[in-house]
Amino acid sequence: MHGIVETRIVFSALLLYKELLCLRCLLALALLIALFFLASSSLSLRSLCFRVLGIRLVGGVRSEVTMAGGAVVAGGEGKEYPGKLTLFVLLTCVVAATGGLIFGYDIGISGDVNPSICGVTSMDSFLTKFFPEVLSKEKANKSTNQYCTFDSPLLTIFTSSLYLAALVSSFFASVVTRVFGRKWSMLGGGLIFLIGSALNGAAINVSMLIFGRIFLGIGIGFANQSVPLYLSEMAPARLRGMLNIGFQLMITIGIFAANVINYGTAKIEGGWGWRVSLALAAVPASIITIGSLFLPDTPNSLIERGHPEAAKEMLRRVRGTDDVYEEFSDLVTASEESKMVKHPWKNILKRKYRPQLTMTILIPFFQQLTGINVIMFYAPVLFKTIGFGDDASLMSAVITGVVNVVATFVSIFTVDKLGRRKLFLQGGTQMLISQAIVGTLIAIKFGTSGQGQIPKGYGYVVLFFICVYVAGFAWSWGPLGWLVPSEIFPLEIRSAGQSINVSVNMFFTFIIAQVFLTMLCHMKFGLFYFFAGWVLIMTIFIALFLPETKNVPIEEMISVWKAHWFWGKFIADEDIHVRGDHVGSADLHAKA
Ligand code: BGC
């Protein structure tokens, strides 16, 4: 008798398990999780949830540390220095942010993640000249499978060679940025990118193309290493998020402009359109090169390099007030600390820097694991099947491109009010839901065989959810992936930390570009669930481990880590210095 009951229970459990695996249930699960995060933005419910989970609610939600000088630095409610947003600081930040244009233009122009679908590498004239064997294989490929599109490893390696160059160069950039100042890395980045665009535009053989791409990559490595740091140091603490996100805004504008330009040049008769696309990279490169010639260096870097008077003067100019004593003396303290550190690369491994090191590795890793580049680059394939025909790539580029640019403004205007955590949690939830829906909609039409057609109306629904996904990314992981790592490090290892951020970002963009078409062919619509799964993991990670950094002065960020329920353990009381004082444990108190 018992045996029969047990068999029934096992049988029903198996059925339930099968049910749970069905798509609808997955969707319901995603919705439930999303609701949890949305609801948990109300503090009381969240504190209840965390307490149920047995987690001490400090730092990650709201905490504060009283500094020895009496000022209060709190997660989300930072100490305020006198000063206002001056036209000078606004202009310098706008000019510096244009460094993002070169990165964005390259993403858009070369079709980095999927060279056979978009970018110059999808133009017949370009392939005929440089990769004729790829073109003939592509033409011979008659597959109608929507998951297994034409895949050329040669082209992928060629386009993503740029990421390897950027990865390596960001480490050299870190030295230039620290020893000579942020300005020179930006200038160098612009110049090297300019050389790359000239080589590419004038290319007569594959070697020229490859050298050109390596130069472009080095330029991007330098710019991405220095621009976010520059912006975070120049900006007043309470507007740091807004001014820093100018960088991501320029990336999105670069992508959009490149896509539209590519569409136009692909139509040029005579087969030299690709040259125009590649050579036009000189425009964003010239903007940042000339612009950075006129940029002043940041007060932080000036002090770090032993020019305190120039730093004080610069601080007065950027803050628009003579009352800069407090901020200046905090910068001097930070710089004294920094001088004791001779080897940033050895020091960054110390236990007290573990929180920042973890973030600067995981944030860019997670940013790429959102699947943004896959969704954006796969969009044209979907659009073709949806029935947009030859205009598919333009349509998808314009629609997702505009959403990407416009949605970035949402983060610009909210990041210093709502804070980084709320944007991360909301954006992550939105991406998770929309990704699961896109995967499900594709599964319904293409199943596992990859055969089928999407009716127009249905296609618009898919398009809508792709846009919801892109918008979620554009106000969360897109800008915050560059902002947060640039604002959490103390001066002595900031430059090294930022180069880790750049190299991890480039490494995983490279990896995803290498494997994405193979993954799509094997995992089919499951690829969308794969990325959705990662978005779930990263959202939980942020909820638990990232303290709020909005409005906290950059040189006092250590106190935010000290007050965090988990990271606090890694930082000793004597590690916290403000104006030469130490913070005793008695000064630390948490407010839940
Ligand atoms: C990411 C890129 C991505 C872009 C999209 C950036 O923050 O680093 O990989 O293509 O956003 O807007």
TrEMBL record:
Pfam families: Sugar_tr. InterPro entries: MFS_dom (IPR020846), MFS_STP/MST-like_plant (IPR044778), MFS_sugar_transport-like (IPR005828), MFS_trans_sf (IPR036259), STP/PLT_plant (IPR045262), Sugar/inositol_transpt (IPR003663), Sugar_transporter_CS (IPR005829). Residues 92-550 form the Major facilitator superfamily (MFS) profile domain. It is found in: Membrane. GO terms for cellular component: membrane. SUPFAM superfamilies: MFS general substrate transporter (SSF103473). PANTHER family: SOLUTE CARRIER FAMILY 2, FACILITATED GLUCOSE TRANSPORTER, SUGAR TRANSPORT PROTEIN 1. Belongs to the major facilitator superfamily. Sugar transporter (TC 2.A.1.1) family. This is Major facilitator superfamily (MFS) profile domain-containing protein.
